[in-house]
């Protein structure tokens, strides 16, 4: 065959595949690998949500094609969530769409809005669909460093955004995602106020990915960009049930905000999908409308794991800053191994300590020097990992 797959060729080799192959190999040798590599929630979805799925699945008609933009009840439930959590009013017909997980929504929005020559400002390091959704769509990515001397500085970040907007004339959108995957960085509402000002001034869109809206540890819930007056002129925001209700496999997320962007996403999705399975959408509605006690319980599990991990790894000689939110710990490679780089260090850690982590490089070149540790193993396994690490570091 002479034909080339031009879009696919734009994507670099999948960096996790090396790590994954090693994991498979070691497991086949009967090694018990403690796996912090993926951000895949391990808790069970709360009972009342599973029960709602069971109750709905026997109803007539639910096996038919569903509604691409999401059933009315679910969009209403999302509007109520934004009202109670952020005091933001949303029109369920024009400002909310249900997505098959926020990853799908982000990737399809990139397809919907990218024109030839468009440039996108994207954090580096970042969750991969942020840059690669747009890479596939044909945009040029302008990576934005988020870490300065080992630390996140929102003011410098905003200055950097404006500098780049001025430098390049065809910026279509800027992507932000706080609490961040992988770095766990957070921002306050003032950051979004400044960002919305810039976006309105220079007429660019803002795509905010708020996947960790409910995974926070300090009585300081992450804000939504839509809390800023006038944000809807420029911003769309993605949320998901994946982490909030441990529903990652159910594939339900949302995009809300700017009508033009929601309309664009609605249109493209009406061509490429029929929406999530109706019983899943009904159960998702029950998740948002029901008691939120389960969310508090999930939050407390992550918080406890974070505390156990920071404390026990610290005692093993690996000092890591405590994240305020998200389900990740962003850990600098211990000094002794710094020269190795994150990929080699991650492999060494797996071979010598039976601990799998994600190399920072997998999230962009500015992720080098760090590894991402997902809070997806229980406290006992975290303590075991700390013991293994102590031996390894010693
Ligand atoms: C920042 C961020 N956005 C989106 C997603 C994907 O979420 P969903 O399951 O809704 O597609 C993740 C998953 O890890 C994430 O970390």
Note down, in words, how this protein is organized:
This protein has 394 residues and is α/β, with parallel strands linked by helices. The chain folds into two domains: 6-44 and 294-393, Aspartate Aminotransferase, domain 1; 61-289, Aspartate Aminotransferase, domain 2 (3-Layer(aba) Sandwich). The chain is 44% helix and 15% strand. It has helices spanning 6-9, 16-28, 47-57, 72-86, 102-113, 129-137, 154-167, 189-202, 241-244, 259-272, 278-289, 293-315, 342-353, 379-393; strands spanning 34-35, 96-99, 119-124, 140-145, 147-148, 151-152, 171-176, 205-209, 235-240, 253-257, 328-332, 355-356, 358-359, 370-374. The strands form four sheets. Strands 2-10-9-8-7-3-4 form a seven-stranded mixed sheet, with helices on both faces. A hairpin with a 2-residue loop joins strand 5 (147-148) and strand 6. It is globular and about 60 Å long. The termini are far apart. The mean pLDDT is 96. Bound molecules: pyridoxal-5'-phosphate. Pyridoxal-5'-phosphate (PLP) binds next to helix 5.
Number of domains: 2
The biggest sheet, with number of strands, parallel, antiparallel or mixed sense and barrel status, is: 7 strands, mixed
Biggest sheet strand line-up: 2-10-9-8-7-3-4
DSSP, total strands: 14
Based on helices, strands and strand pairing, what is the structural class? alpha/beta
Distance from first to last alpha carbon: 54 Å
Shape descriptor:
globular
